[in-house]
Each structure stands twice: as structure tokens, then as C-alpha cells.
Write a structure and sequence with these properties.
Elements (H helix, E strand, L loop, with lengths): L3 E2 L67 E6 L14 H8 L12 E2 H4 L2 E7 L6 H17 L3 E6 L5 H12 L2 E6 L19 H7 L3 E11 L10 H5 L3 E4 L9 H11 L3 E7 L21 H9 L5 E8 L10 H15 L5 E2 L1
Parallel strand pairs: 2-4, 2-5, 5-10, 6-7, 6-9, 7-8, 9-10
Antiparallel strand pairs: 1-4, 3-11
Length: 352
């Protein structure tokens, strides 16, 4: 039976919280979920009132809840990296992203977004993945996310390697049907197989196409780059109807015009955002498993996510943060900021 586990990171002074398998997603001993109408919405504590080094290590120090019931959106960790092809360590991504998220605040002055005045948000802990069995981990992830989306809660996922997006999209399609996809990455992740295996972080979107999980005319891939074994490495993607935007077509320019085109492509139907941190140049995000030179900048990443405001976003993820390759924590800090921007771009968030 699936269970979600509470995170216990270095910043939190409290004791770790155990978990036991039950029928619901649970954190024994932690606060139960509640309907948003019963009480004021959850608010991250202000650093003016509570020191950043104080508190349990949850995303933005939000309450860690047992269930998605009553939540409009939630942060969920998926600490899995057994699908990686190069440098491991993404299993530690959710914990470090949460740790660095203490620098975030509640309002986005640049966009006018007021997410915590608009939505009931909490941290649902981590999916209890099986590090010794990738297929079983995918099953656990799919089942966990089916419960989350069935409750009307929009998941914002802290990865984990990119394999995790495949079972998440299986759960999304069960509720929404085939979804549009905004995929920001250095790699297309549509390889059919590697070493004879069809399930790994280089193949999630190939599996999604095989299973009809994507509305392929509403798929855009941005930041794609790197060397290849063929002269036409994007033939498969374009043959499926994907829009592929190479990193070199983004160099030295604003991506605001591009995002206007993407919004028109996506329309009003459900869209999922999947952001691999290696889309960014490794000068900004060295803590990742398969870095590629000459990538996007953090300001372009902000333009991409902010350009999703007004779209019917039904879920998001930020994957492939590998903390052992960036001891400064800056890659995880960047990831935490991008996840907050995704929260700010959700459909029900009030902007002023």
C-alpha cells in the first residue's frame, strides 16, 4: 500500500516523523487536511517573525498534511534517481529544494501573484518510492498521484529524475485525458530504449506517446541542445507534432514573444509543465546529472513560467536536481524559486 513520508531535513529542529502504510496518503502525527472554507488559508511563516533556521523542513515551511483533501495545490517530493543514465543524486533533490525554499516569500511583486491568498496549499511529503525497482516505483507514483488529482489538488512535484514524469502523466491522463505539455529541458527525453530498457529518464515522453497520454499537437519542448549520434535527432518529435525550440534559437533574446506563441498553441485545454533543471546552463545550475553547455538563463526560465499565466495548468514538476554536484545549494535554490513561480502561474491565483 502506498504511503507518503514526511521530510526530515537538516534545518528542522524537531524529531523525525515516522509513517505506516494505510489506505490514504498519510503522515501519522501531522495535521489533518481541512476544507479551505473552514479556516484561513495556510501561510508560510514570515522571516520577520520566525527565523529561517527554525521549523520542520517542508516546502516554504508550509504545513505537512496527511491528505490532499481540501487542498487546491500541494508540493510533493519524489526522491527517485534509479532511472538516471549519468550522474546520480537526484534522490536528494526534494530534500535540498525544501531546505533552500526558506528564502522564498509569499507574494510575487513582479507578476502581482498572491498564491497564498488565493489557494489552500500544503506539503504532502514524499512518495515512498522503491529505490531497488524502477517499475514498482512508477506504480507507486501513479497510484499516489491518482489520489492527489482525484481530490482536485494540483501537484507541484520536486524530483527526482525525469522518469517520474511518466507515471505522473499516467495519473493526469486518467482524469483529464491527453494533456498538453510544456517541456523545458536540454534533452527531448524521447529515446525509445537504452541498454535494452524502455523505462529510464531518457524515455518518459516516448512512453507517454506510446500510451496516448499527450495531446501531441500541444507539446512544446524548449531549450533542447547537445550533441547527438545522428544529424536529425529531432525527427521523431516533430513527426509526432511536437514543437521543438532549440537552445541556440533562444540565445541572447527574450522569450516573451515565444511564450505568446506557446499560449496560442496550448489554448484552454489542460496543460502540464515539466521543467528539467538541466535546461539551464550549468554555469547557473551545475547540480544536475546530465549537464549540457550553452543553455538557458534564469531570466529566460522566469519568462517561460510566467508566460504560462492564463493557461489551464493541471500539474507541474521540477526534476533532475542533484545536490551532490553543487555543494553551494544554488541549483536547489534556483529550483525552489522556479517551483514558486509555477505556483504563482496556476489558474486560480489572484493577480493585482
Amino acid at each position: 500500500m502506498l504511503r507518503l513520508l514526511a521530510s526530515g531535513c537538516a534545518r528542522g529542529p524537531g524529531p523525525g516523523v515516522g509513517a505506516r502504510p494505510v489506505a490514504e496518503l498519510c503522515h501519522p502525527g501531522l495535521r489533518q487536511s481541512r476544507q479551505a472554507s473552514d479556516a484561513p488559508r495556510n501561510q508560510p511563516p514570515s522571516p520577520e517573525l520566525v527565523a529561517r533556521s527554525v521549523g520542520v523542513c517542508s516546502m516554504m515551511r508550509l504545513p505537512v498534511q496527511t491528505s490532499p483533501e481540501g487542498l487546491d495545490a500541494a508540493f510533493i517530493g519524489v526522491p527517485l534517481d534509479t532511472g538516471t543514465s549519468n550522474r546520480p543524486g537526484a534522490r536528494f533533490g526534494p530534500r535540498r529544494i525544501r531546505e533552500e525554499s526558506v528564502m522564498l516569500r509569499t507574494v510575487n511583486p513582479s507578476t502581482g501573484a498572491l498564491p497564498f491568498q488565493s489557494l489552500m496549499v500544503a506539503d504532502l511529503g514524499d512518495v515512498n518510492v522503491n529505490l531497488y525497482n524502477l517499475q514498482d516505483s512508477c506504480r507507486r507514483i501513479q497510484e499516489a498521484y491518482e489520489k492527489i488529482v482525484a481530490a482536485g489538488c494540483i501537484p507541484l512535484t520536486l524530483g527526482g529524475d525525469h522518469t517520474i514524469t511518466y507515471p505522473i502523466l499516467q495519473a493526469m491522463a486518467k482524469k483529464h485525458g491527453p494533456v498538453g505539455l510544456l517541456h523545458v529541458d536540454a534533452h527531448t527525453d524521447t529515446t525509445d530504449k537504452a541498454l535494452g530498457e524502455q523505462l529510464y529518464h531518457g524515455a518518459p515522453f516516448r512512453r507517454c506517446v506510446d500510451e496516448g497520454l499527450l495531446d501531441c499537437k500541444r507539446v512544446a519542448q524548449i531549450g533542447i541542445r547537445g550533441y547527438s549520434t545522428t544529424l536529425d535527432p529531432y525527427r521523431y518529435n516533430r513527426s509526432q507534432g511536437f514543437r521543438v525550440v532549440l537552445a541556440e534559437d533562444c540565445w541572447m533574446k527574450s522569450l516573451v514573444p515565444l511564450m505568446a506563441e506557446i499560449r496560442q498553441q496550448m489554448g484552454g485545454k489542460p496543460i502540464y509543465i515539466s521543467f528539467d533543471i538541466d535546461a539551464l546552463d550549468p554555469a547557473y545550475a551545475p547540480g544536475t546529472g546530465t549537464p549540457e553547455i550553452a543553455g538557458l538563463t534564469p531570466s529566460q526560465a522566469l519568462e517561460i513560467i510566467r508566460g504560462c499565466q492564463g493557461l489551464n495548468v493541471v500539474g507541474c514538476d521540477l526534476v533532475e536536481v542533484s545536490p551532490p554536484y553543487d555543494l553551494s545549494g544554488n541549483t536547489a535554490l534556483l529550483a525552489a524559486n522556479l517551483l514558486f513561480e509555477m505556483l504563482c502561474a496556476l489558474p486560480k491565483v489572484t493577480t493585482v
